[in-house]
């Protein structure tokens, strides 16, 4: 028995090619934005000693 309806046509419908996921840019650790963000994170850590205080 043949199906009454075919979801796609070999003649007219093109094969759907999935897009490759985009890579997100992660700046290096010496980037000014990243360094400032990391320093703010370190300063929020209560269990770490502060730099310059000895």
Automatic annotation (TrEMBL):
The lineage of its organism: Bacteria, Bacillati, Bacillota, Clostridia, Eubacteriales. This is Uncharacterized protein.
